[in-house]
Amino acid sequence: MWWWRLLVPLLAAAVLVGPRESPCGSDRYELHGLCCDYCPAGFYVSRVCDVDRGTECSPCEPGSYMAHRNRETACLPCAECRERDQELVSDCTRDSNRRCQCKTGSYYCDSEDCTEACHRCSRCDGPTLETCNATRDTICATEGNPEPGDPPRSRAGSSHIWTVVVTIAIVAIITVAVAVAVACCRRRDESRDSGGPGDTQRRVSLLPQDAEHGQPATGVDSVPLLEHQGLPMVPSEDPKARVQLQEVVPTRSEASQEQAPQAQAPAAPGGPDQTEAAVPLHALEQQYEQKYVLKDGSPEATNRIYFEFGQEVPKTSWRMFMRLAGLEENDIVICEHENPGNLAEQHHRMLLRWQSKLGRTASPFRLMAVLCKMQLRECLENIINKLVTEDILGSKDAEPPN
C-alpha cells in the first residue's frame, strides 16, 4: 500500500491546480468519481457510497449533533453550559446544539465579547428601574429618572428645577438677541461698503481666507455660496443693485477656471447614483472582471489570495462574507470546530471548501464583489493593491493593446 501515500498528495495538488464544477449538482457530492447522497440533519455518514451501494447514514450519538445536511463521518460535540455563570435554555438534540444563557438576576451578556464569561449584574445604591436579566444589566434610577411608583418630589426640589429651567431660557434668549443684533450690524456695514461706484468689480467671498496672503484657501471651491447650493437669487427692485449683484457673483465657468485642478477619485462600481448594496452581486462581479485580470492562477497564487482576504476582512464580518460568497452554514461550523482557536486556519479552510463547492464560479472577483456589496471599501482596496503589487492581479486598463 506504499503507492497510496504517493497518490494522496497528487490528488490534493490536482484539487488546488484548478477548480472545476461538480457534475453531481447541489443535491449530491462527488467522491472518487461517484455522486453520493448527503446525510440529513441529525445523521452522519457511517459508510460512504461505492459502486454497489449508496451512502449509509447513522443518527448522531448522545452528546453530539449535526444541524444541517452533511457529508461528515462524525457529528459535532454539543456545547456545555458553565456552572458558574450560565443556565440551560434548551438541551442538545441530534439536530440542534445545546443553548445556554447567563444566569438570570446574577449575570448578563449584552454583546458577542463575553463568550468566555458573563458579566456580573450591577447593584443600585438607590431605586432600581429595571432588574438585571440574561441580556441586559441593571438600570438604576437617577435624580431626573425616578423609579415608577415613587411619590412626587417636594416643593423645594420642584422650585429648584424651575429656577434652573428659567435661567437656561433667559440665557438662550439673550444669546439669540445678541446674534441677531450682530448679524444686522454686519449686514448694514456690508450694504454701506458696496454703495460706492468703485465696488462693482469686487467679488463677495464666502470662503475661508489664507492668513498670509489674503487669498481663498487652497482646495476650496471658489463658486459663490448661492450658486453652489443651487439657491435662486432674489431680484432687487433697484436696477443698479441688480447690475451690481450680477457683477459681484462670478459664473460657474469663471469659478472653475480660478480653482486649481484636483485629482478625482475613481468612481465605485455601480456608478455614483447607485450604492454598492443595491447592485446585484453578479453585476458587481462582472464589473471587476472587466476591470482586472488574474495574471497568476497557480496554487501558490491562490493560497496567497486567500491569505490576503483572511487578513483584511474583519473577523466580525467574516461569517456574513462567506455566506454571501455562497458557503453553507454547516460548512462554516465544521471549519470552526476542526480548527479551534486558529482563526487564520479556519478562514483558509472555509475558502478552500468554498472553492471546491462552487467550482469554476469560485473566483477572486466574486470575493471582491461581496466586499463591495458589504461596503467594506477600505479592506477591498488594500487587497487589490497588495495583489497588484505582487503581480497576481493586473489592471486591464494598464495593459498595452494587442
TrEMBL record:
Keyword Repeat belongs to the record: yes
Biased amino acid composition, Low complexity: 253-272
Domain TNFR-Cys: 59-100, 101-140
Gene Ontology, cellular component aspect: cell surface; plasma membrane
Keyword Cell membrane: no
SMART domains in UniProt: DEATH, TNFR
Segments forming domain Death: 317-387
Protein's GO biological process: positive regulation of apoptotic process; TRAIL-activated apoptotic signaling pathway
Disulfide cross-links: 60-75
Name listed for the protein in its UniProt record: Tumor necrosis factor receptor superfamily member 1A-like
Species of provenance: Phyllostomus discolor (pale spear-nosed bat)
